[in-house]
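User: Sequence recovery, please. Input:
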């Protein structure tokens, strides 16, 4: 039986560093519409929903032919927001696409989905993306979440610190940045929201650590960077410059 796969785009109106960033214009569309429309254009999903706490964002999507769901409660994370929405949806795998990533491409998302479609024994419960980091400033920057993986490409640890730590400098390690795009089987996502925040998650402020601390492996996929995450007005300017070359 074919799996039903949906994309959910959590879209919070408020943002500490850049309020209302998802409703900023990028070319002739808002940021959130670019994200929605480009996710839909991949052709990978049975449905695409924007999940939001904002009537402004809800109207922006639905008035332009998209599907949106209004959140009922307050949510600490995008995963919590998505989980509330999918409880009543018949779905096997949910892909969480960040609302502030307007340059969504098919290939990275397809790699995530293939993990589940090829997993006949249902061993993969959660998967996510990462890219190789080579810039030393980015490796040292706590805003870039690093991930260490085992030989089976399962995450061992996520951290804002440098991992692995190059103690003697004689070995050149590979550093990976975690890209916050996830795919979950529905039961795994529901379990996540029923667990309390875990110690490492609380310290690092990285929500996926909750899975690891509860013994749920996260399968990682290497990909090229998906685009520009818009957190500041400067990011929006970079995105506007890239827009003309985006295909």
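Assistant: Recovered sequence (247 residues):
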């Amino acid at each position: 039986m074919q799996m039903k796969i949906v994309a959910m785009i959590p879209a919070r109106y408020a943002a500490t560093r850049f309020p209302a960033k998802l409703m900023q214009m990028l070319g002739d569309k808002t940021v959130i519409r670019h994200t929605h429309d480009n996710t839909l254009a991949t052709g990978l999903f049975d449905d695409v929903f924007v999940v939001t706490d904002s009537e402004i964002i809800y109207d922006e999507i639905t008035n332009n032919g998209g599907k949106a769901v209004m959140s009922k409660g307050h949510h600490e994370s995008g995963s919590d927001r998505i989980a509330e929405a999918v409880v009543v949806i018949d779905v096997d795998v949910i892909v969480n696409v960040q609302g502030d990533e307007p340059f969504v491409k098919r290939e990275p998302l397809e790699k995530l989905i293939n993990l589940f479609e090829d997993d006949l024994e249902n061993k993969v419960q959660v998967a996510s993306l990462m890219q190789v980091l080579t810039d030393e400033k980015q490796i040292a920057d706590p805003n870039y979440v690093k991930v260490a993986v085992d030989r089976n490409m399962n995450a061992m640890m996520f951290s804002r610190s440098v991992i692995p730590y190059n103690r003697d400098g004689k070995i050149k390690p590979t550093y990976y940045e975690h890209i916050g795009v996830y795919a979950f089987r529905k039961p795994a996502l529901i379990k996540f929201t029923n667990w309390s925040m875990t110690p490492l998650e609380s310290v690092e402020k990285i929500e996926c650590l909750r899975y690891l601390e509860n013994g749920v492996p996260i399968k990682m996929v290497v990909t090229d960077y998906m685009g520009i995450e818009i957190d500041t007005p400067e990011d929006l300017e970079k995105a506007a410059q890239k827009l003309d070359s985006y295909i």
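Residues 5-231 form a domain with the Spore Coat Polysaccharide Biosynthesis Protein SpsA; Chain A fold (CATH 3.90.550.10).
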